[in-house]
Amino acid sequence: MGEYQHITHESIEPFINDDSKVLILGSFPSVKTREVGFYYGHPQNRFYKVISNIFKEELPTSIESKKELLNKHHIALYDVIYSCDISNSEDSSIRNVTPIDIKELLLKFPNINRIIVNGNKAKELFNKYLLKDIDTQNIDIYYAPSTSPANAKMSLDVLVEIYKQFII
């Protein structure tokens, strides 16, 4: 593990709008995502392959085409963590967590009716910090495997089938 840095989520705003119905939450942006400036920026992350396969759309390659795909299907993106100490992109190194204000986010965007939590670390942190602040009578919550390259044991086809159940 490398040196720890305290990093906030300020450089990457939540990708959400009034038409968003599905909110997908990761843990915290990777180094590559922070460099690119948009969610799931690592070239080996299979997130956009999964989404484009589900909707039988062309794989987006630019940030603008990624945003168009997400908007077309009413998908919002954010992370569980607003700030933390982290070493490189290692989820296992995350400490000193400040979670996002999920109550405020859901009040501001009341059309969100599903939350998909992407990956085990996001699930652990979501359950610890956010679940208590969500009206589970009106919002369905699903836990999905990570699309990260670190989850290489799970095939793209399996990821597509799992996410399809939650998104459509």
Describe the structure.
With about 170 residues, the protein is of the alpha/beta class. It has a single domain, classed as 3-Layer(aba) Sandwich (Uracil-DNA Glycosylase, subunit E). It contains six helices and seven strands; from the N terminus they run ββαααβββαβαβα. A four-stranded parallel sheet has the order 3-2-6-7. Helix 5 links the parallel strand 6 and strand 7. Helix 2 crosses helix 6.
What keyword list fits this structure?
168 residues, alpha/beta, Uracil-DNA Glycosylase, subunit E, four-stranded parallel sheet, three-stranded antiparallel sheet, 6 helices, 7 strands, 32% helix, globular
From the N-terminal CA to the C-terminal CA, the straight-line distance is 38 Å
Describe the main β-sheet briefly.
4 strands, parallel
Helix content: 25-40%
Shape, principal axes of CA atoms: globular
DSSP strand content: 15-25%
- The overall number of domains is 1
Secondary-structure content class: alpha/beta
What is the CATH architecture term? 3-Layer(aba) Sandwich
Rounded to the nearest angstrom, the radius of gyration is: 15 Å
CATH superfamily, by name, is: Uracil-DNA glycosylase-like domain
The number of E-state strands comes to 7
Task: Tell me the CATH topology.
Answer: Uracil-DNA Glycosylase, subunit E
* Mean pLDDT score: 95
Number of helices: 6
Strand order of the largest sheet: 3-2-6-7
Helix-strand sequence: EEHHHEEEHEHEH
* Low-pLDDT regions: none
CATH first level: Alpha Beta
